[in-house]
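Title: Prediction job returns without error message
Component: structure pipeline
Severity: low
Priority: P3
Assignee: unassigned

Description:
Job completed but the reporter wants confirmation the result is attached to the right record. Sequence as submitted:
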Amino acid sequence: MTDLLTRDEIDTALAALEGWHSERDALVKDVPITPDSFRWLTEAVQNEADEMNHHPDIDRTDRGIRFRLSTHSAGGVTPKDVELAARIDQVLSGAARDKG
């Protein structure tokens, strides 16, 4: 079983993750995207998650996409969530470069 992060550890991780915040027992990021980006972005993030065997909640919102990361078996945020958040940010930064 993976150890839950303390509040201080979560705050330290969030300081290094741009645009992420803590919401109850999860790390959350809302990203504005165009409607036609949802599918390929979801697939790209799922590929990263599959490599880690750790899957985020991904929801379409009025303004884009929401990623919610929590280790359900542990009941909160673990190091795996922080790693997946960083990988999602890498996917997002690659997407931004591709558009440019």
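Comment from assignee: result matches the submitted record. The first strand starts at residue 21 and ends at 23.
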